[in-house]
Amino acid sequence: MSNLGRVKWNFALLLVGAGLTSQSMAGGSQVEVKQSADNVWELRRNGEPYFILGVGGSGPLALAKELGANSVRFWGIEQLEETDASGRTKLAQIEELGLTFTPGLWVEHERHGFSYLDPEMVQKQRQKIREAVRRYKDHPNLLVWGLGNEMEIFPGRPEAERVWKELEELAKIVKEEDPNHPVMTVIAGADENKVREIMEHYPSIDILGINAYSGAGGTGMKLEGLGWKKPYVITEYGPSGHWEVAKTAWGAPLEPTADEKAAQYFATLQSVMKNKEGLCLGSYAFLWGQKQETTPTWYGMLLPTGEKLPAVDAVVRQWTGEWPANRSPKIEALRFANQADRAKAGTRLEAIATVSDRDDDDLTYEWTVMAESTETKHGGDAENVPPSFPQAVASVRGPECSVIFPPPGAYRLFLVVRDGKGGASTANLPFFSE
């Protein structure tokens, strides 16, 4: 699903730029996958069992660590060199916090213009991956190589077979350069045909990464039924995807509220941790941070301003057995007073939210009207945030506001509730102006 926009590789910058210190590279970790006599797979790091309680994304790593995460996944190797306000790279932060990381070795997608029939393109990609592995293979916090993310073609086509066969060659390169860390490739969903093609054409894979949403909890059982014998990691899980939900009459997908999303994070992680089928090595929650994908609020676990959403509380409860000290507010419902979702431009309607807070914090309310996104992309490619219409919000009275319908078109009314203590919640309501 998510590559957080098309990942651009710039190895010249990586090789010359903010380099790793000799201290940080002074002793690489030893990570392997081992199978016990009773056929249970285990990830072992420096000889000790290691179960991944991870997040995927570039959000604040100190907060992830504080809340119970032990690992972070990135989609592109260049994300390791992103810096915070103090100039510290993500890699430096990971080392300071004692987290592990799964770096993405980006494998190009043909939908982005790459051709696996072009020997020059193929060779350049192989060399880039070799250079990236050489650069980071001895870092003590490296856990698993993430070789590719959702680069697969529809199964059964010659193009798909070419991708799997090239991944086999790339995995051999990674292992040649670094025999001390497993290779994982990530696909979108535990599709039967994809899994069977991988088993046929890609034997060097060590771990199968699965990005799954509504059906994430049943991944282990499904893989076992398909005859998959190696371990897997849930590399993305979260709310129902925008392709999995009901839509309005004009085609706008209905986004769950933040609290509804939290319930799904909770149920997925509970199922993953209890029903591993002897194959599961852990999971990475999606998305640690925020992004525009269908809407600005669908997949992020945090607001751009840093507050945590209810999904974070749910994941922490499963990781640690305890709820965070401060719980995020809860938006129980959001609706127009007359239940309408269509009206003529210029119509004034009242929007009402039902909101609660378990800690009885003083809440603030932010209302925004945005146009419906018209550039939904495939596989998480970068999207622009739709324009907002501040003049459409006529007045705000805490959990209520008046909306003046803008010029004809599709829109969403967004509500963000904050508790002033680092917690927040979101919901939105699609509507159509005629």
Describe the protein.
The chain has 434 residues and is α/β, with parallel strands linked by helices. The protein has two domains: 11-320, Glycosidases (TIM Barrel, Alpha-Beta Barrel); 330-433, Immunoglobulins (Immunoglobulin-like), CATH 2.60.40.10. Helices cover 24% and strands 25% of the residues. The protein has helices at 11-16, 61-67, 90-97, 119-136, 158-177, 192-201, 219-225, 258-274, 310-320, and strands at residues 31-35, 41-45, 48-49, 52-56, 71-73, 100-102, 104-105, 145-149, 183-188, 207-211, 232-237, 280-286, 330-336, 342-343, 348-356, 364-371, 393-397, 400-404, 409-418, 424-433. A nine-stranded parallel β-sheet has the order 6-5-4-12-11-10-9-8-7. A four-stranded antiparallel β-sheet has the order 13-15-18-17, with no helix packed on it. A four-stranded mixed β-sheet has the order 14-20-19-16, with no helix packed on it. A hairpin with a 2-residue loop joins strand 2 (41-45) and strand 3. Helix 4 (119-136) packs parallel to helix 5 (158-177). The longest helix has 20 residues, at 158-177. It is globular. Residues 2-26 have low confidence and may be disordered.
Task: Tell me the layout of helices and strands.
Layout: H1 11-16, E1 31-35, E2 41-45, E3 48-49, E4 52-56, H2 61-67, E5 71-73, H3 90-97, E6 100-102, E7 104-105, H4 119-136, E8 145-149, H5 158-177, E9 183-188, H6 192-201, E10 207-211, H7 219-225, E11 232-237, H8 258-274, E12 280-286, H9 310-320, E13 330-336, E14 342-343, E15 348-356, E16 364-371, E17 393-397, E18 400-404, E19 409-418, E20 424-433
Parallel strand pairs: 4-5, 4-12, 5-6, 7-8, 8-9, 9-10, 10-11, 11-12, 14-20
Antiparallel strand pairs: 1-2, 2-3, 13-15, 15-18, 16-19, 17-18, 19-20
Helix pairs in contact: 4-5, 8-9
